[in-house]
Structures are given as structure tokens and as C-alpha cells.
Specification:
Blueprint lengths: L1 E7 L2 E7 L37 H7 L1 H7 L2 H30 L20 H12 L14 H29 L9 E3 L4 E5 L2 E10 L5 E15 L5 E9 L9 E2 L5 E6 L11 H6 L3 E10 L7 E2 L1
Antiparallel strand pairs: 1-2, 3-5, 4-5, 5-9, 6-7, 6-8, 6-10, 10-11
Helix pairs in contact: 2-5, 3-4, 3-5
Protein name: G protein-activated inward rectifier potassium channel 1
GO molecular function, one term: G-protein activated inward rectifier potassium channel activity
InterPro entries: Ig_E-set, IRK_C, K_chnl_inward-rec_Kir, K_chnl_inward-rec_Kir3.1, K_chnl_inward-rec_Kir_cyto, Kir_TM
């Protein structure tokens, strides 16, 4: 067996050959194992919190944000369920008042003044609630002045209905107006490349906007995520390093009317300066690109990863 050294960038790779053969018996290259990303290319962070204690109560203390963060199917389920329960509860209250007063048995007596006219069973009480809550007011069913408990219930119904409408409709509106889908029309290059540009070794990737509407005050940042060990022996599993993509020169401020090439110069200040070509292929790290800006048509401020 003899050893040959083949130049591979700035590093060297040992290649063995058999003395009896005329060709190189080089082992097949190992397939790189696909590992889970910290941030997916759709912007979703793969982070799960555990052993925090009281996690459920923390989410419930900020119920509005929790509902907004839920998936659409759960939002629609909670929306329909809340309104259905509220409607059935209030209709039951109107039916209960009519039952206690005896209005159900005297509904067709023209000389008797009930609490709510023409309410003689639960379906009619439900229809009266829907007509008043939705401000339809057909005029066939109406509350009379001979029922003080009905007036109090009517005030309670109005306040409760306003709270439920403000909470659920506000939640749905904010969820629909979230700028997450705007990221679908902002494209990043599938791969990054390292090459010479302007006489400097540079890491480059491209970003483009598919829509005609511009991103106002667009700014781009890059984070390098990798594990490292401090001189004191502390292990940092997810250390974040900033990659300079033109902060000092203002190149990070983008005028995104056409696809642009984002550059990071690999100089002495770059985290990649001490890595060879071979080390770049085997090193475990992740680059997260953050693009921020104001949507021209809606004024929203999305953040794309």
C-alpha cells in the first residue's frame, strides 16, 4: 500500500492505492446524513420547550396571542364552538325566564302580557335571541316593559355579545392580516456559493421579489448558528454569530426591485476564515438569513427567514 496526497483546496486528502493494481481503489464517498434544521426554509423554527413548569398557564394568560398562533382549523373550530355555546346559553336563559313566569302556557292569550311576545318554546326563544343579537328585528318577537328581569338579561346579552364579537372577530382579522404569506413571493437561492468577487473570497446567495409591489426599507441580516466550546470549558450548543453582509457600508439596505446577490466577504473577521474547503463540507453549522421590510400595499412589517 502506498499513500498519495491529492491537493484539495487548502487541505489535503489521503488516497490509498494497491501495489498490484493499476488504478486507484478509492472508497465511494459517504452520503451526507440529512440532519434536522434549526430553522426550516419556510421560516418555521424547530424548537420545542420542555420542563419549564406552568407552561399551560403561561399560554392561557396570553389567550389572545395563543389563539392567533393556532392553526386555521383550530381557529375555525373555536370560533364556531364559542358562538354556538353562547347562542344556546342565552337562548336557554330567555326560555327559562318565560318558563318561570308561565309565559309558555299563556302565549296565545291576547289579554296576557308576556315577558317576550310570541315566545312559547325553546326554538322561538332561540329565534328571538338571534334576531336581537344580530339586530335583525323582524318585529314579531319583542321584549315588553312588564319584565324587569328580561331587561337586565337583555343588557347582559348586549355586553356579552360585544365582548365575544370583539375577541373572536379581532382574532380572526389579525390572523388573516398576518404577513406570513408575503414570504411565499420572496425567493432565496437554493444554494449558496463561495467564489472570488472583486479579488476577495466571498460567500454569495441571491434574493428576489416576485411581486410588483416593493418592500420598503428592506434590510437583510445573516446569522451563523453552530456549537462551540469556550476556553473555560462551557459548551454552547447553539451559538449565534453575525455575518457581515454590508452593515458597515450600507449594502444590507436593499432596493429589491430585481434579484440581488448578497455577499459576505470571508476575511479575518469572518467565522469562515479558518475553515478550508473540506472543513466547510464536514462542519456542522447553519446560516439563517433574515429579511425585513414594509409591504408597500398594506404597511405590514413581515420578517422572512
Amino acid at each position: 500500500m502506498s499513500a498519495l496526497r491529492k491537493k484539495f483546496g487548502d487541505d489535503y486528502q489521503v488516497v490509498t492505492t494497491s501495489s498490484s493494481g493499476s488504478g486507484f481503489n478509492q472508497p465511494p464517498p459517504e452520503k451526507k446524513k440529512k440532519r434536522q434544521r434549526f430553522v426550516d426554509k419556510n421560516g418555521r423554527c424547530n424548537v420545542q420547550h420542555g420542563n419549564l413548569g406552568g407552561e399551560t398557564s403561561r399560554y392561557l394568560s396570553d389567550l389572545f396571542t395563543t389563539l392567533v398562533d393556532l392553526k386555521w382549523r383550530w381557529n375555525l373550530f373555536i370560533f364556531i364552538l364559542t358562538y354556538t355555546v353562547a347562542w344556546l346559553f342565552m337562548a336557554s336563559m330567555w326560555w327559562f325566564i318565560a318558563y318561570i313566569r308561565g309565559d309558555l302556557n299563556k302565549a296565545h292569550n291576547d289579554k296576557y302580557t308576556p315577558c317576550v311576545a310570541n315566545v312559547y318554546n325553546f326554538p322561538s326563544a332561540f329565534l328571538f335571541f338571534i334576531e336581537t343579537e344580530a339586530t335583525i328585528g323582524y318585529g314579531y318577537r319583542y321584549i315588553t316593559d312588564k319584565c324587569p328581569e328580561g331587561i337586565i338579561l337583555f343588557l347582559f346579552q348586549s355586553i356579552l355579545g360585544s365582548i365575544v364579537d370583539a375577541f373572536l372577530i379581532g382574532c380572526m382579522f389579525i390572523k388573516m392580516s398576518q404577513p406570513k404569506k408575503r414570504a411565499e413571493t420572496l425567493m432565496f437561492s437554493e444554494h449558496a456559493a463561495i467564489s472570488m468577487r472583486d479579488g476577495k473570497l466571498t460567500l454569495m446567495f441571491r434574493v428576489g421579489n416576485l411581486r410588483n409591489s416593493h418592500m420598503v426599507s428592506a434590510q437583510i441580516r445573516c446569522k451563523l448558528l453552530k456549537s462551540r466550546q469556550t476556553p473555560e470549558g462551557e459548551f454552547l450548543p447553539l451559538d449565534q454569530l453575525e455575518l457581515d453582509v454590508g452593515f458597515s457600508t450600507g449594502a444590507d439596505q436593499l432596493f429589491l426591485v430585481s434579484p440581488l446577490t448578497i455577499c459576505h466577504v470571508i476575511d479575518t473577521k469572518s467565522p469562515f476564515y479558518d475553515l478550508s474547503q473540506r472543513s466547510m463540507q464536514t462542519e456542522q453549522f447553519e446560516i439563517v438569513v433574515i429579511l425585513e421590510g414594509i409591504v408597500e400595499t398594506t404597511g405590514e412589517y413581515p420578517q422572512m427567514h
